[in-house]
Amino acid sequence: MISSQQQEMTQKDPNPDDDDAALFHAAMRDVAPLPAANTVTPHHSPVSPVPRRRQQQQSVVEDMLSNHIAIEIEAGEDWSYARPGMSHQTLRKLRRGHWEIQANLDLHGFTSDEARQALSIFLDACTQRMMRCVRVIHGKGLSSKNREPVLKTRIGNWLLQRADVLAFCQARAEDGGGGAILILLKAKA
Questions:
Q1: CATH class held by domain 79-185
Q2: Which residue, 153, 159, 156, 91, is CA-closest to 122?
């Protein structure tokens, strides 16, 4: 026979663990979890990144410089160009180093196509960063087929096609001489 004590226990709570779980859940009903340690919870959705390479490729496609010779510029000692409407004093200041060279691009060992793309990307970046005076090192052509500068006249023609180039000239001896060119870019408004 079952004693009265045993009957009370079986009638009261057949499983004491269920009762404990119910009490725990009732006690924790209004509690919010703490954020994880050493983490920041963003309050807005993250901005999707745009790869720089895609931006550069788009700018190259938009600004493809032609190899067509627009104006014949002889690559002599006094090799220079100023946009129509620019004063000769601006070109003289550029030759004399009036503006500080803010960025450099070295095109040694580049093919013509690689140089054209690198120059376009470089000038776009300089314009974005509001630089005025930059130097492009094209080399003197001493290791080229005819020992003549291959890129020098091409660079001159590519620069003529860009609206952001106001003037350019051969660099002073201390800035690279016949193997480099100084470029004056438009100031952003």
A1: alpha beta
A2: 159
Q: Which residue has the tokens 């390479």?
A: 53
- Alpha-carbon distance of 173 to 99, in angstroms, equals 16
Per the listing, tokens 């990144």 go with 49
Residue 18 three-state SS = helix
- Picking from 47-56, 83-92, 141-150, which range would have the lowest pLDDT averaged per residue? 47-56
User: Is pLDDT larger for residue 99 or for residue 63?
Assistant: 99
Q: Which two tokens stand for residue 134?
A: 């930059």
Confidence of residue 61 (pLDDT cuts 50, 70, 90): very low
If one compares 143 and 176, the residue with the highest pLDDT of the two is 176
Query: What are the residue boundaries of the structural domains of the chain, listed by start?
Result: 79-185
| Alpha carbon distance 182, 103 (integer Å) | 10
More confident residue, 142 or 182: 182
| 3-class state of residue 19 by DSSP | helix
Q: 88 φ, ψ to 5°?
A: -70, -25
3-state secondary structure 93-147: HHHCCCCCCCEEEECCCCCHHHHHHHHHHHHHHHHHCCCCEEEEECCCCCCCCCC
Q: Which helix (H) or strand (E) holds 8?
A: helix 4-12
Give the other-Cβ count within 10 Å of 137's Cβ: 17
